[in-house]
Automatic annotation (TrEMBL):
Predominant location: secreted
Compartment annotation: Secreted
Keyword Metal-binding listed: no
Entry protein name: Uncharacterized protein
Organism, scientific name: Paramuricea clavata
GO CC annotation: extracellular region
Length: 224
């Protein structure tokens, strides 16, 4: 599963966009590749422009989306958003290609993909970390912690921040929204609180503008 890393200490669920809040902290817009509005409170779908009261794209107008605070964690999210290390660690690749954690801040990841050295030192072939005449021992990495999937059942899962929806043939698919409404056509979904209007291809909510319907993606199948 993936998350969207805003920086090393804040992240948003997969399918969200990191946007700054008025406080300067990170917030999460609940749609992918969103436009972050200059009021630091709202966001709009990709390709739309923020106005004072709505999102506009040509003659099409939809409601503004409200951001939620990002998840603040004392962890270091590794590049790609699929794993993390404890606070004060550095993400380094392991021999397996997976992420590992070096127990040092801003560490040097050694080419052997097993060890690491303190910031400002060099990994040597003799198995030490060197800075000028100062020599210290190598540090060993530990595997990074994998960020959890959303289990659907039957060995299928969806990325974090998604919703499991059944396909027409009874398999699982992933709606790229949390707590989403799965549409009856078994192909589309809508944000929480919206209703699927399949004839119009939109998601509707009382007293709000309709938005474009979302397409489900195949779920992740665990290897047998």
């Amino acid at each position: 599963a993936k998350v969207v890393a805003c920086n090393a200490t804040a992240y948003c669920p997969d399918g969200n966009t990191c946007c700054r809040l008025a406080s300067g902290q990170w917030g999460c817009c609940p749609i992918p590749n969103a436009v972050c509005c200059s009021d630091h409170r709202h966001c709009c779908p990709h390709g739309y422009t923020c106005t004072s009261a709505s999102c506009q794209k040509g003659s099409h107008v939809t409601q503004l989306f409200k951001k939620k605070p990002a998840i603040q964690v004392k962890i270091v999210v590794c590049p790609g958003g699929t794993a993390y290390c404890p606070d004060g660690n550095t993400c380094c690749k392991l021999e397996s290609g997976q992420w590992g954690c070096c127990p040092l801040l801003n560490a040097v990841c050694c080419p052997d993909r097993v060890h690491c050295c303190p910031h400002g030192t060099t990994c040597t072939s003799s198995g030490t970390c060197q800075s000028g005449s100062h020599v210290t021992k190598l540090f060993k990495k530990k595997p990074a912690i994998q960020i959890n999937d959303v289990p659907c059942g039957g060995g299928s899962s969806c990325p974090d921040g998604s919703t499991c929806c059944k396909t027409e043939d009874g398999e699982w698919a992933c709606c790229p929204l949390p707590n989403a409404e799965c549409c009856k056509d078994h192909e589309h979904c809508c944000p929480e609180g919206y209703t699927c209007d399949l004839s119009a291809g939109t998601c509707t909510q009382q007293n709000s503008e309709s938005i474009e319907i979302f397409l489900n993606k195949p779920a992740i199948q665990e290897p047998k």
